[in-house]
């Protein structure tokens, strides 16, 4: 246990630049993981109810050209 | 024997208490006779005061505590039943297919009289329409341009940023066209009425075939028990098969009412889907943070919570053999382990 803590300490905390970088990268990584994970859960609870689940029925065959507002405007 | 009989006869007049009775009870073999008499008094006193207190409280409640009704029940309107809405649950979004159907119903039925003027066309994009559909719908309407060089205001087709046009120019025109009754704007109607979705659904589907016996319906009004006052300007609008849904859903009156209520809830709270999702995220993160803060508190307080205090008397007697525990005991001190 103490050996593991020592390893972590020397790897991440000893040098300030590494420590700061760890904090910043960790914050971004945590946010990305948490957001995508919770969105995944939310979408599975509401499968078939949201616009992104039904929009393929109404999109014209031209492709993604009219997709521009579909995702950025979900308020 | 004499005492016994006098006691027995005095039972008939339980209220009276003669000295003879008292003597008799005192001489009886039971030792509780005196206290029994006293407890009889106590019981009477306690019962009467309790009755008085309860009576005064209930009298006060009867006088001042009851809810007052300024209106009769008919003026209040029938309270709508609770319907099992799926989209109002905390973990559920709107059913956007139903929103699309509801907007279809709105355009074909409600929009003849009711506006949703707080909704711009861009709101439909990404929640119940594609960009092309919304643009095409906006271009069907004409809007005023800014004044040109000559100061004239021209007409232009609508854009996504325009708000939905009301069916009437102003409230006066709406009243004039509807027998003096103003059709309310429906953008926020679900938020603006007691009962919300339940009320609007009950109102739309609650028109009886004919008004019940004894109900007074003024001319030009229609009977609806859910409407406060029961006289509503809007006649029954939703009939089975009134619209043709593009997704093939059978257009019964209750299906249309359900769809249009969900749509009107969306117009009132277009942010609801995102708000619920964000609320769950906030709950999750604050749960973690709360657990962390509890841990930090316990960590910081650990030294204080686990320390032990000992008391050394100022004039300690001469040291005696044995442990300090025994010395404290001899001098009357107690020490908890």
TrEMBL record, chain A:
Q: Which GO terms describe its biological process?
A: mitochondrial electron transport, ubiquinol to cytochrome c
InterPro entries given for it?
QCR9, QCR9_sf
Q: List the Pfam families hit by this protein, alphabetically.
A: UCR_UQCRX_QCR9 (PF05365)
Q: Which Gene3D superfamilies match?
A: Cytochrome b-c1 complex subunit 9 (1.20.5.260)
Whether Mitochondrion counts among this entry's keywords is yes
Q: Where in the cell is it found?
A: Mitochondrion inner membrane
Q: What does this protein do?
A: Component of the ubiquinol-cytochrome c oxidoreductase, a multisubunit transmembrane complex that is part of the mitochondrial electron transport chain which drives oxidative phosphorylation. The complex plays an important role in the uptake of multiple carbon sources present in different host niches.
UniProt family annotation = Belongs to the UQCR10/QCR9 family.
Tell me the subunit arrangement: Component of the ubiquinol-cytochrome c oxidoreductase (cytochrome b-c1 complex, complex III, CIII), a multisubunit enzyme composed of 3 respiratory subunits cytochrome b, cytochrome c1 and Rieske protein, 2 core protein subunits, and additional low-molecular weight protein subunits.
Q: What is this protein called?
A: Complex III subunit 9
* Organism annotation: Neohortaea acidophila
Upper classification of the organism:
Eukaryota, Fungi, Dikarya, Ascomycota, Pezizomycotina
TrEMBL record, chain B:
Q: Which InterPro entries match?
A: Cyt_c-like_dom, Cyt_c-like_dom_sf, Cyt_c1, Cyt_c1_TM_anchor_C
Q: Which domain of life is it from?
A: Eukaryota
Q: Does the keyword tRNA processing apply?
A: no
Protein's GO biological process: mitochondrial electron transport, ubiquinol to cytochrome c
Q: Where is the composition biased (Acidic residues)?
A: 139-152
What Pfam families does UniProt report for this protein, alphabetically? Cytochrom_C1 (PF02167)
Name all Cytochrome c domain ranges: 97-250
Q: What's noted on cofactor binding? A: Binds 1 heme c group covalently per subunit.
Q: Which Enzyme Commission numbers does its entry carry?
A: 7.1.1.8
Leading EC class? translocase
Q: Where is this region: Disordered?
A: 139-161, 312-337
Q: Where in the cell is it found?
A: Mitochondrion inner membrane
Reaction(s) catalysed (UniProt annotation): a quinol + 2 Fe(III)-[cytochrome c](out) = a quinone + 2 Fe(II)-[cytochrome c](out) + 2 H(+)(out)
Residue sites binding heme c per the record: 110, 113-114, 234
Annotated Gene Ontology cellular components are: mitochondrial inner membrane
Cofactors named for this entry: heme c
Task: Provide the alphabetized UniProt keywords.
Answer: Electron transport, Heme, Iron, Membrane, Metal-binding, Mitochondrion, Mitochondrion inner membrane, Respiratory chain, Translocase, Transmembrane, Transmembrane helix, Transport
Q: Which GO terms describe its molecular function?
A: heme binding; metal ion binding; quinol-cytochrome-c reductase activity
Where does it primarily localize?
A: mitochondrion
List, alphabetically, the PANTHER family matched: CYTOCHROME C1 (PTHR10266), CYTOCHROME C1, HEME PROTEIN, MITOCHONDRIAL (PTHR10266:SF3)
By sequence similarity, the record places it as follows: Belongs to the cytochrome c family.
Give the protein's recorded name: quinol--cytochrome-c reductase
What organism is this sequence from? Neohortaea acidophila
Which lineage is the organism of this entry classified under, starting from the top rank? Eukaryota, Fungi, Dikarya, Ascomycota, Pezizomycotina
């Amino acid at each position: 246990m103490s050996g593991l803590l020592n390893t972590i300490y020397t790897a991440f905390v000893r040098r300030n630049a590494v420590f700061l970088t760890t904090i910043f990268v960790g914050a971004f990584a945590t946010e990305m993981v948490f957001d995508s994970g919770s969105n995944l859960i939310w979408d599975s609870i509401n499968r078939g109810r949201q616009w992104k689940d039904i929009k393929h029925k109404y999109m014209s065959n031209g492709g993604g050209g009219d997709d521009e507002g579909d995702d950025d405007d979900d308020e | 024997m004499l005492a016994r009989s006098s006691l027995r006869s005095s039972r008939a007049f339980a209220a009276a208490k003669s000295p003879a009775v008292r003597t008799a009870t005192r001489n009886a073999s039971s030792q509780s006779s005196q206290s029994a008499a006293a407890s009889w008094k106590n019981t009477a006193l306690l019962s009467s005061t309790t009755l008085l207190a309860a009576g005064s409280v209930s009298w006060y409640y009867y006088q001042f505590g009851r809810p007052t009704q300024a209106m009769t029940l008919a003026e209040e309107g029938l309270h709508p039943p609770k319907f099992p809405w799926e989209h109002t649950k905390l973990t559920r979004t709107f059913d956007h297919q139903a929103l699309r159907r509801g907007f279809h119903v709105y355009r074909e039925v409600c929009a003849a009289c009711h506006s949703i003027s707080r909704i711009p066309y861009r709101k439909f994009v990404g929640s119940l329409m594609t960009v092309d559909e919304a643009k095409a719908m906006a271009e069907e309407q004409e809007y005023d341009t800014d004044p040109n060089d000559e100061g004239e205001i021209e007409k232009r087709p609508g854009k996504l940023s325009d708000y939905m046009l009301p069916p009437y120019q102003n409230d006066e025109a709406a009243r004039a066209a509807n027998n003096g009754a103003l059709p309310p704007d429906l953008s926020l109607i679900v938020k603006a009425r007691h009962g919300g979705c339940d009320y609007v659904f009950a109102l739309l589907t609650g028109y009886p075939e004919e008004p019940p016996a004894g109900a007074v319906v003024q001319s030009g009004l229609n009977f609806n028990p859910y409407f406060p006052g029961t006289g509503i300007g809007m006649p029954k609008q939703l009939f089975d098969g009134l619209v043709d849904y593009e997704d093939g859903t059978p257009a019964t009156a209750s299906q249309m009412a359900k769809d249009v209520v969900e749509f009107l809830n969306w117009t009132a709270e277009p942010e609801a889907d995102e708000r619920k999702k964000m609320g769950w995220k906030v709950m999750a993160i604050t749960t973690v943070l709360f657990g962390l803060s509890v841990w930090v508190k316990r960590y910081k307080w650990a030294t204080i919570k686990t320390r032990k205090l000992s008391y050394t008397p100022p004039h300690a007697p001469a040291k005696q053999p044995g442990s300090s525990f025994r010395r404290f005991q001899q001098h009357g001190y107690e020490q908890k382990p």
